[in-house]
Amino acid sequence: MDKIVLRKAHGNDVGIYFEWVNDSEVRKQSFNSEAVLWQAHQEWYKNKLLDENCFMFVMESDNQPVGQIRFDVVDGVANIDYSLDKKARGKHLGERLISDGIDMVLANRCVVFQASIKKQNLASIKTIKKLGFDEVESNNPEKSIFQKKVL
Questions:
Q1: Of 67, 100, 105, 122, which has the most beta carbons under 10 Å away?
Q2: What's the CATH code of the domain at 29?
């Protein structure tokens, strides 16, 4: 994986997002582990692209999509959702994906980033902590919540 770029998601990415969201490991690490249906996904994807409080990006390596990151901004807090393609896992690209995504969103003056991660998803917890996110109190026994404030 040589040339890595992060670009805005567009309508033509709906299919790759669908593949990623239904990947068995992604479903396993999701709070809702049920498979996503194509019709529901298409509607969700269209609405996210139109939502001015949603920022979606695709990571490409050598012009091939290898991951996605989404920031849903609610009350000044950017909630993070990301995933990597099977072929991109284990190569420390999650850290780059989150870091580059934050840089892209900062242009929109988001100052608090938040990630909710299943407590058993140790790889994502390690990645998010490495990027300077702090764990905040969570009353949910299944997930940990991390935040990073950027001034």
A1: 67
A2: 3.40.630.30
Give bridge partners of residue 85 from the DSSP assignment: none
Domain that holds residue 91: 4-149
In order, the DSSP letters of 50-92 are: H-TTEEEEEEEETTEEEEEEEEEEETTEEEEEEEE-GGGTTTT
Residue 36 is classified by DSSP as P
Q: How far apart (Å, rounded) are the C-alpha atoms in residues 54 and 131? A: 22
From CA 68, how far away is CA 56, in angstroms rounded? 7
* pLDDT tens readout for residues 79-137: 999 999 999 999 989 999 999 999 988 876 667 889 999 999 999 999 999 999 999 98
